[in-house]
Amino acid sequence: MKAIQLSALHQPLAVVDVPDPTPAHGEVVIDLKAAGLNHRDVFVQQGLYPGIVLPVFPGSDGAGVVSAVGEGVDRSWLNCEVVINPGLNWGPNHVVNSPAFTILGMPTAGTFAEKIVIAQTNVYHKPTHLSFEEAAALPLAGLTAWRALMSRAGLSRQHPERVLVTGAGGGAALFALQFAVAAGAEVWVTSGSEAKLAKAKALGAKGGVNYKEADWHKTLLKLATNGDAEKSRAGYFDVIIDSAAGPDFAKLTQVAAPGGRIAFFGGTSGKITDVQPSVVFFKQLSIFGTTMGNDVEFGDMLRFVEKYQIRPVIDSVRPLADAQAAYDRMNAGGQLGKLVLSIA
């Protein structure tokens, strides 16, 4: 089979020929039809991820058809259209992953290949309304957003809440937006791109602001509260989902409503600075760190996606051999939605 290989840091990806995998006990082989790209893949190439082991076939997200099963696996899985949960060995504690937890694609061989062998417990039936390309865009970013929004921040599905998603345009942020809208929340967003703000509104966001403005948080509160000075002073958003951290994190505490919950899973803007402790404790704010999710959450996320017929936003689809071009686009930061590789 053909696969994409990263042999050394800061080196371009290469297409290589390797033997087809065979399943051991409890494993299946999947003929991959599509694979999704994540920032993690680019960070590994750039040497910005811990515990890098090379060479490796990258890729955490994938969807395809089961073509072989190992001993101990029900043969009814053969020929099933499936999507892969990229989290390996989460462990028995649903609150936090075990020390053995890893993510598919490094050090374990990933989805940028024509075939993959993986434990059957990491394989789920593909939501029927999704194409392979759409399904491949879902796992890592969708699971990250689901855990941040539903498990960690505890978005209510019984009582409508107000949600802020920062950095709309990235994969996980867009999923958080889509999940919150489907759950009945009033959703606002931030972005550095007017085109991405417009896309967020098309997906159901009530409004948004450009975070490149110096006082974007004041503009956001004015818009969201219809200029109500009292509401603006108190804060407005019950749930905030952030993927950047950095100095602007302090502004999130300003726009959070009393009793608000802030969940974050990224640090692309650097260290969190200038947060005033008094704002956090007088507002009774809860701040959660989060990453990925457990197996139960992955199943819950897929059922929610199918129930509400949610479709991932895809920026572009390229053939497997053009994986490096997808990396370059992600590194440039111009994508709107997920970058996907189509596998013949």
UniProtKB/TrEMBL annotation:
Give the Pfam families listed for this entry: ADH_N, ADH_zinc_N
> Which superkingdom heads the taxonomic lineage of this protein's source?
Bacteria
Every copy of the Enoyl reductase (ER) domain together lies at 8-341
Q: Where are the transmembrane segments?
A: none
Q: What is the protein name given in its UniProt record?
A: Zinc-binding dehydrogenase
Origin organism is Fibrella forsythiae
